[in-house]
């Protein structure tokens, strides 16, 4: 049958084979004619000439043969399409149901494929392509994961060998840009001059950095990111050449970048390393421990990751040998090249792959459902088909007819699905942006359209095969028997429809299990104790411009005044400042400390903690409980004894079973010769999820902001009413105290918390949507199949009841028949979910991928829905009067 | 033996091919020979229209083609009647007979 369908499809694309067939056939004719002429007594040469003459133009004949075939094919094709359209219009219910179901299935697949293609499959938007790597450094022995390189280490990397043809450094800072109507805080990528050449990014305006522009003494220049250029300059090309003040020196704009992923950070502007006052500071430049840089490199043409790794291993060995103080073997320094593609997409991959799998299942389910519908319809059409067959339509022609019809349905569904996918694009881009910087590359064009077309054709072919498979037996017999059109179409077809129901239940189970696990994950995530209270707290960034506030006294002055002003605002319950906000994505600010009275250790073996600077009301403002002692107070001034507040986990780690309050911890100075500063532990506070929802609370040491002033500042305001309403008051307060001081990134703690939950929430929402769709389709499918078989067995039920069977027993029989299929489906679905559990294990939190509670709940729920779907037709089976059924059956 | 050959009426070639294939499968050359023989050389089959006709009939599903080996042991394309073709032949034979009879009656009347 498959061969037959393929041969019907082949005609319009007839290729070489057909052509050579025709050649051979005509050649045979001429040769045979020649033989015959020879037999009649002609000389061979003459015989052949005669045969050719008699034949007429061979080429012309060939052309006519082709035309004859094509004309017939085209004519019957158009006839098929017209007929299919007519027959679908005659049955609008079926057509609408089938087209809509397929549109949902194909639309969902198109949408998810556009994401997968844009993010995972498409080549990187950098000219450097697959040769680009980021160099990652870890030192597990020192608690460093994905650390940063120092400037001397960058030089070591550049000189480490020839595996790379370019190495470039990167770090990002916030600076204040002056010269616009308002002071603007801009995120600034600070890079080597070859950074953009390494990536293979060409500017759309002006130029990028030139060799030497990252050396001391070079003019300060800026390259604008595409989004900042559009946002702040409205895409004005005359921006190139303009001069802005940053860090107390003029910076000239030299170029604008094309839209590239906001990676490693979504920077507004880029400057060469020589323009960054921190990076270009001689102390930093020569300090092996000043880890602040990320390293990017491009493998030389033909180079491999293995080769690069070997070179880096060699470098680490050399460094351990040359600088044992900085790189003791005990901390196991390791540097590895990570392909940039992985960097950009690693986080998104599991989610997108899971979603692809799920939408694939939805499409399968949609197909099963439409196949079921068309089987039911086929039964009703059997008479028509038999009649057409009797009137001379060949089986092949009928099969082609059905195929045309299903292709028409699938393609219409595909077009509608495409419309759906286009409508969802914005939403998907927003979703993907939480997982990958490549989200903006998602578009529904080219390959995605081809994918949709391919899927639609495949679905159409598959659906066309189903009736063909099930109608092997002679259609004429249907006519001869003159059977009731409502009778099921033979045991084979009933079995097939049963199988489809089993498949639907199984697929639904997998989808529901996935959605259930994701919901449980979401619930667990929402239950995580953050360690602080999110209600009614407004946060904002007030990072101080270092050139305005170079001295500690100035920072202290600004920060004290700001707190005083904020605390006196109406509606403010309390106000506080700290270095960073909780749930921040900026990794821990790790530092080492000593514990008084414990045996002295080598500097590299000292305990590590995350240091936070905070103002006096910080714990009160964000609602962190004080477990022992006291919190920070405004009395912990620069002239008072130095104090520290530690987190519960740090206390438990280093003072198990003891009270740390009253003990002292020591901080080393910048240089080994500096004296150790001793701080008294005055209190223990609850643990806080400082760096992300999923990272366990870091062991923290809080320092008094008055004793350790800093530039990076987050402002917290707990309010008595809607926190967002205080935004203007905070802005005004900041500008009153520091007219050139920017304040931005206003967010409530609730929004920060929501943001951390957004990606699992969206994944869960999508899965629930798919699963709900699946459930609805399945329930309808079951009700349809059971209803159909009930309709066909009306007479049998009539007889049974006439002979004394209780309606209840008949109902039970029908229910049993349906639930047997459902049970098989559940079993297969359960096995399938177990097999697929690896797929989603990476996305779950605190829930086993084979969580028995979820599986049981899904099985029960799905079973209940299926039972309801069986029960409705079962009741109808017994609601007819047996006599009526018998008479009319 | 009459030597005068008559051109085939438009459309009659199809039914002649179907009829010729009714007893057994045959290749193109054979079909032409056969029609000529049976019609005692009155009906000459133009090869230029034979092969397009065969392709048309095949496309319509009335005849099916298959490669086989010919009487002189060469590869040849054999055509055979399908069930639809058989029905078509019956129909066309009947309508031809009606037509011929009608023409005959008209001619006899004058």
Structural description of this entry:
The complex is a heterodimer of chains A (889) and B (110). Chain A is an alpha+beta fold and 889 residues long. Chain A is built from 25 helices and 23 strands. Chain A has 4 domains: 2-90, no CATH class; 129-345, no CATH class; 501-529 and 751-889, no CATH class; 543-741, no CATH class. In chain A, the strands form 3 sheets. In chain A, strands 14, 15, 16, 17, 18, 19, 20 and 21 form an 8-stranded mixed beta sheet that branches. In chain A, strands 3-4-9-6-8-7 form a 6-stranded mixed beta barrel. In chain A, strands 13-22-12-23 form a 4-stranded antiparallel beta sheet. In chain A, helix 5 (92-121) packs antiparallel against helix 12 (349-390). The two termini of chain A are 35 Å apart. Chain B is α+β, with helices and mostly antiparallel strands. The longest helix of chain B is centred in the last third of the chain and has 27 residues, at 83-109. The radius of gyration of chain B is 15 Å and the shape is globular. Chain B starts with 11 loop residues before the first helix and ends with a helix. Classes of the chains: A alpha+beta (889), B alpha+beta (110). At the A-B interface, helix 2 and helix 4 of A face helix 2, helix 3, strand 3 and helix 4 of B.
């Amino acid at each position: 049958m498959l061969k037959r369908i393929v041969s019907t499809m082949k005609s319009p694309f007839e290729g070489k084979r057909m052509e050579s067939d025709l050649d051979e056939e005509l050649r045979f004719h001429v040769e045979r004619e020649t033989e015959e002429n020879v037999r009649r007594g002609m000389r061979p040469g003459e015989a052949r000439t005669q045969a050719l003459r008699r034949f007429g133009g061979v080429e012309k004949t060939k052309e006519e043969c082709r035309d004859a075939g094509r004309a017939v094919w085209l004519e019957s094709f158009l006839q098929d399409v017209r007929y299919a359209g007519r027959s679908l219009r005659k049955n609008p219910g079926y057509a609408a149901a089938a087209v809509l179901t397929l549109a949902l299935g194909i639309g969902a697949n198109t949408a998810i494929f556009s994401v997968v293609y844009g993010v995972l499959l498409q080549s990187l938007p950098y000219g450097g392509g697959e040769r680009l790597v980021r160099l990652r450094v870890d030192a597990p022995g020192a608690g460093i994961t994905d650390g940063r390189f120092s400037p001397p280490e960058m030089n070591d990397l550049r000189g480490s060998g020839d595996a790379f043809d370019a190495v470039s450094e990167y770090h990002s800072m916030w600076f204040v840009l002056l010269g616009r109507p308002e002071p603007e805080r801009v995120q600034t990528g600070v890079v080597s001059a070859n950074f953009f050449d390494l990536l293979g990014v060409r500017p759309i305006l002006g130029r990028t950095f030139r060799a030497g522009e990252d050396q001391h003494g070079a003019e300060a220049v800026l390259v604008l990111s595409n989004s900042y250029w559009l946002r702040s300059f409205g895409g004005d090309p005359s921006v190139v050449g303009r001069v802005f003040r940053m860090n107390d020196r003029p910076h000239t704009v030299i170029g604008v970048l094309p839209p590239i992923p906001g990676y490693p950070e979504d920077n507004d502007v880029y400057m060469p390393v020589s323009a960054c006052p921190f990076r270009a500071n001689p102390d930093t430049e020569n300090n092996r421990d000043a880890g602040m840089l990320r390293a990017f490199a491009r493998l030389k043409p033909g180079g491999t990751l293995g080769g690069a790794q070997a070179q880096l291993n060699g470098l680490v060995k050399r460094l351990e040998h040359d600088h044992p103080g900085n790189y003791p073997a005990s901390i196991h320094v390791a540097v590895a090249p990570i392909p940039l593609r992985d960097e950009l997409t690693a986080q998104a991959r599991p989610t997108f792959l899971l979603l692809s799998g799920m939408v694939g299942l939805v499409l399968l389910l949609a197909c099963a459902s439409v196949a079921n519908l068309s089987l039911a319809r086929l039964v009703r059409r059997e008479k028509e088909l038999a009649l057409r067959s009797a009137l001379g339509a060949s089986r092949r022609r009928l099969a082609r007819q059905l195929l045309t019809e299903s292709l028409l349905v699938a393609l219409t569904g595909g077009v509608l699905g495409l419309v759906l996918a286009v409508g969802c694009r914005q939403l998907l881009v927003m979703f993907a942006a939480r997982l990958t910087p490549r989200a903006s590359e998602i578009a529904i064009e080219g390959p995605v359209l081809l994918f949709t077309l391919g899927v639609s054709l495949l679905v159409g072919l598959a659906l066309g095969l189903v009736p063909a498979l099930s109608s092997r037996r002679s259609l004429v017999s249907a006519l001869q028997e003159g059977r009731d059109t409502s009778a099921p179409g033979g045991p084979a077809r009933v079995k097939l429809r049963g199988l489809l129901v089993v498949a639907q239940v199984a697929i639904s189970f997998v989808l529901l299990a996935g959605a259930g696990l994701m919901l449980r994950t979401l619930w667990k995530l929402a239950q995580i104790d953050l360690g602080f209270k999110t209600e009614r707290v407004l946060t904002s960034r007030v990072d101080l411009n270092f050139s305005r506030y170079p001295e500690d006294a100035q920072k202290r002055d600004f920060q004290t005044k700001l707190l005083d002003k904020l605390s006196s605002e109406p509606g403010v319950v309390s106000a506080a400042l700290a270095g960073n906000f909780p749930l921040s994505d900026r990794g821990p600010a790790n530092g080492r400390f000593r514990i008084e009275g414990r045996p002295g250790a080598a500097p590299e073996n000292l305990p590590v903690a995350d240091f936070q600077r905070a103002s006096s009301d910080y714990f009160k403002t964000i609602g962190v409980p004080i477990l022992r002692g006291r919190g920070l107070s405004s009395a912990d001034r620069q002239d008072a004894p130095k104090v520290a507040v530690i987190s519960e986990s740090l206390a438990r780690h280093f003072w198990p079973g003891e009270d740390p309050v009253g003990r002292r911890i020591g901080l080393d100075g910048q240089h080994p010769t500096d004296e150790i500063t001793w701080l008294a532990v005055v209190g223990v506070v609850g643990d806080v999820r400082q760096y992300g929802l999923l990272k366990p609370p870091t062991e923290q040491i809080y320092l008094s902001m008055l004793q350790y002033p800093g530039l990076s500042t987050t402002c917290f305001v707990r309010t008595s009413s809607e926190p967002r309403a205080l935004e203007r008051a905070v802005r005004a307060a900041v500008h009153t105290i520091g007219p050139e001081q920017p304040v931005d990134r206003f967010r409530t703690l609730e929004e920060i918390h929501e943001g951390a939950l957004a990606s699992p929430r969206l994944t869960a929402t999508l899965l629930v949507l798919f699963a709900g769709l699946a459930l609805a389709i399945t329930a309808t499918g079951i009700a349809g199949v059971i209803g159909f078989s009930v309709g066909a067995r009306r007479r049998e039920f009539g007889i049974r009841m006439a002979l004394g069977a209780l309606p209840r027993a008949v109902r039970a029989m029908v229910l049993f028949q349906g639930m047997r299929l459902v049970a098989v489906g559940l079993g297969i679905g359960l096995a399938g979910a177990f097999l697929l559990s690896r797929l989603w294990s990476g996305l779950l939190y605190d829930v086993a991928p084979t969580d028995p509670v979820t599986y049981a709940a899904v099985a029960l729920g799905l079973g209940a829905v299926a039972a309801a779907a069986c029960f409705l037709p079962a009741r109808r089976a017994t609601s007819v009067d047996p006599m009526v059924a018998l008479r009319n059956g | 033996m009459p030597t005068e050959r008559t051109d085939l009426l438009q459309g009659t070639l199809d039914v002649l091919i179907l009829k010729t294939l009714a007893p057994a499968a045959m290749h193109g050359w054979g079909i032409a020979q056969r029609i000529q023989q049976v019609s005692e050389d009155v009906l000459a089959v133009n090869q230029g229209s034979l092969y397009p006709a065969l392709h048309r009939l095949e496309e319509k599903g009335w005849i099916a083609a298959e490669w086989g080996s010919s009487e002189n042991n060469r590869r040849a394309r054999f055509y055979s009647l399908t069930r639809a073709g058989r029905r078509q032949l019956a129909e066309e034979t009947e309508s031809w007979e009606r037509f011929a009879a009608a023409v005959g009656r008209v001619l006899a009347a004058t």
